[in-house]
Amino acid sequence: MYINAQLEVLNLGNNDFEDIPVVLQHLKKLLKLHLFGNALKNLNSNVLGSMQQLTFLNLNNNLLTELPPEISRLEALQVLSVCNNQLQNFPSQICNLPKLHELRASHNELESLPLEIGFLQNLSKLYISQNKIKELPEGLGKLRKLHLLDIAGNELRIFPTEMHNIPLKELYCEANPLLEEVPVHSVQEEEILSLKELCARLVMKEVKDKSSNIRHRIRYFKGVRELLSQASRCSVCSDAFLNTWLECVRFVKAGKDLKINKCNNPVIPVRALLCSYKCFNSEGHSFYGVAFP
């Protein structure tokens, strides 16, 4: 196969390729590549990693079950479309694409998204409808440029805690088994925390004090810092806690509360974490305990 090495756009769609043609690794100036409608089962990582100027990659309608970690070499990539494949997950390395602003992965077998998804700081459109996703990672709340999220037709029950931090304008979430607001009165007895949890909460209170001796000493203990970095904050009292103690839900209005212009669900369930049953039993909040069937 002869290909002009100066090509910037190449359409190889609707052929019978089972892998990316090796000759493509010589196209150093290639910007857009269409490989839709082939029989791709794997992606040659050497060829894929050589196209470092690529900004657009269309792999729709193939037989892919995974993407290679070398996808992270496509540092110029802005649009990636892998709809209608058999992908079960994304490699965490996909979150190392600094310029990616549109990701299309509808009609796959995805069960989750990478925990590191928050590193895709330029992502503005995410299409993941018709998959098998049961939970969205908390890192989604760090996507401060995400304007469109299509997660229709999945297995989602609840949205992550920091939904209010995402500047969504369009949210499509129909055909999910989302939690519904059916309140049942319940008062829980206050719990006994583990010694590890008690110590962690004490330390996290101390580090807020700039004059605290613990605040100055903790910088010498890497393991402790890493442990405390996993802490959450109570939605009622705002205190920090280490282990997920009580998972709750609040029902927010997509338009009024989240400022979303287009959403087919006027009210959506958003995850909330509480530090204790004391906070759960307190009055004046709108959080509900979660009971899964």
From TrEMBL:
Gene3D superfamilies: Ribonuclease Inhibitor. Pfam families: LRR_1, LRR_14. The keyword Repeat applies. The keyword Zinc does not apply. Keywords: Leucine-rich repeat, Repeat. PROSITE patterns: LRR (PS51450). Residues 40-126 form the Disease resistance R13L4/SHOC-2-like LRR domain. Transmembrane segments: none annotated. Signal peptide: none annotated. It comes from the Eukaryota. This is Leucine-rich repeat protein SHOC-2. It comes from Ciona intestinalis (Transparent sea squirt).
